[in-house]
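Project outcomes to date are best conveyed with an example. Our students and postdoctoral researchers have been running inverse folding experiments weekly, and each run begins with a structure described purely in tokens. The record below, which covers 459 residues, was selected by the lab manager from last quarter's runs and is presented without edits.
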């Protein structure tokens, strides 16, 4: 059952059109195209076209660094297939780079300490043939920062990841991308080279309303960092995949892993982080995941709010101008606020295990009260009664235990400790004892419980 009507309300559509019209006008870009998707479908597209018609929602624009998210997906597929581990050093799978000690996870999360850009000349405005080997991209291999200690955005790191994919698969990065992502997701208007119709890239003079054409170079080895062309429709469909996963491409748990922060944010960026190929931001009280992108002549923004089930993409053909990532976030917010998600109907579980049911209710870690409730598929949810600390969802394992999925308890094991007669003694969560009463005397609380029990201060 859908949680939204099939189409947006007219007032919502007008608000979306107004937002992109302001962005195109004030941003002084020849054209701007945008799209919104929710609950698995593209529900709105809009454009402010130039005289040459470049604003059509089927026109390709260059998407710049949104390409990095596409590059991260085949890396995660290789991990899921057991062909590599994210903690493997690069050297295990791609030799001779000079930076082989960094891990694949560090490259994905921009914490490998590599430089942001390759050696000059400016790689985005010069042909990739100037950098035919990884050594030409990495230069002397000097580390900008210590490995693993901070997030430092690196185009060169994603060049290395593209070469890693090619080395393990034994075929070019572009071919792997086409076969493993674009074709299964039916992203027919996404490609490494532009396909008609596509927008021309322009530079707009900062002090006059005149244009200068920008070159559209083939980036060669740098392609995995920013090569792709796409449309707002394709990007919206890709964003929905980033929210839900697709077993033909990447399972939901792996996509969720990509959306999890992988490195500390800068001290002045507490509302933004980086996962594994995805940017993560907090805006107006909601979490958005996706990526921004730019190349000379083009700007791009793609965000999805997983909680709202809404995604938005914005593309423009100017080197500078509208903040497309901000506009895309605004489009998500417009729809979420005007047409909030309708909750799915509550339904009882089809069946229940009586032993599990007996575990539910209040439990105490010391004097902290928690509720334990059943969820689908024999899962459980542990939530504090006061505050929000240390709450977590758990999924059932095959051995009578549960594994934490989020928060403080992510990855931790919850198990039932029973007495000899089979009755529940206590719950153990990573060595923390949860009892039916605060400091229950017979529940084996570490450190023991004073035999005189609870008392007033006067005793």
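After processing, the design step wrote out the following sequence:
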């Amino acid at each position: 059952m859908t949680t939204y009507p099939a189409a947006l309300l007219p007032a919502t559509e007008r608000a979306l059109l107004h937002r992109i019209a302001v962005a195109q006008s004030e941003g002084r870009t020849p054209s701007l195209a945008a799209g919104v998707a929710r609950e698995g479908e593209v529900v709105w597209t809009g454009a402010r076209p130039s005289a040459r018609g470049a604003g059509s929602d089927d026109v390709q624009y260059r998407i710049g660094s949104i390409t990095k998210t596409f590059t991260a997906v085949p890396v995660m597929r290789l991990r899921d297939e057991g062909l590599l581990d994210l903690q493997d050093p690069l050297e295990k799978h791609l030799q001779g780079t000079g930076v082989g000690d960094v891990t694949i996870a560090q490259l994905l999360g921009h914490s490998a300490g590599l430089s942001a850009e390759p050696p000059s000349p400016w790689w985005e405005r010069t042909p990739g043939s100037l950098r035919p080997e990884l050594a030409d991209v990495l230069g002397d291999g000097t580390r900008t920062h210590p490995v693993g200690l901070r997030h430092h955005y690196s185009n060169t790191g994603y060049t290395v990841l593209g070469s890693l994919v090619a080395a393990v698969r034994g075929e070019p990065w572009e071919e792997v991308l086409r076969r493993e992502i674009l074709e299964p997701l039916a992203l027919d208007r996404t490609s490494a080279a532009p396909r008609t119709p596509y927008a021309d890239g322009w530079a707009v003079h900062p002090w006059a309303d005149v244009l200068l054409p920008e070159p559209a170079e083939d980036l060669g080895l740098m392609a995995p960092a920013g090569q792709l062309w796409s449309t707002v429709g394709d990007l919206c469909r890709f964003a929905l995949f980033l929210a839900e996963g697709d077993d033909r491409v990447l399972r939901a748990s792996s996509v969720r892993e990509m959306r999890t922060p992988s490195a500390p944010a800068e001290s002045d960026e507490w509302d933004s982080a980086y996962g594994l190929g995805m940017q993560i931001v907090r805006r107006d009280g909601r979490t958005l995941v996706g990526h921004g992108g730019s190349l000379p002549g083009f700007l791009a923004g793609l965000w999805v709010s997983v909680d709202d089930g809404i995604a938005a993409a914005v593309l423009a053909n100017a080197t500078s101008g509208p903040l497309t990532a901000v506009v895309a976030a605004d489009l998500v917010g417009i729809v979420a606020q005007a047409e909030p998600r309708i909750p799915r109907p509550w339904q009882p579980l089809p069946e229940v295990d009586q032993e599990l049911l007996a575990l539910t209710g209040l439990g105490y870690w010391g004097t902290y009260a928690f509720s334990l409730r059943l969820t689908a598929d024999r899962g459980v949810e542990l939530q504090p009664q006061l505050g929000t600390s240390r709450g977590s969802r758990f999924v059932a394992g095959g051995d009578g235990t549960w594994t934490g999925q989020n928060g403080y308890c992510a990855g931790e094991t919850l198990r039932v400790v029973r007495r000899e007669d089979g009755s529940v003694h206590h719950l153990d969560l990573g060595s923390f004892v949860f009892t039916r009463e605060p400091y229950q005397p017979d529940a084996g609380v570490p450190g023991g419980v004073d035999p005189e029990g609870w008392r007033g201060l006067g005793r």
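The chain has a mean pLDDT of 91. The chain has two domains: 10-338, 354-434. The training component of this project remains on track.
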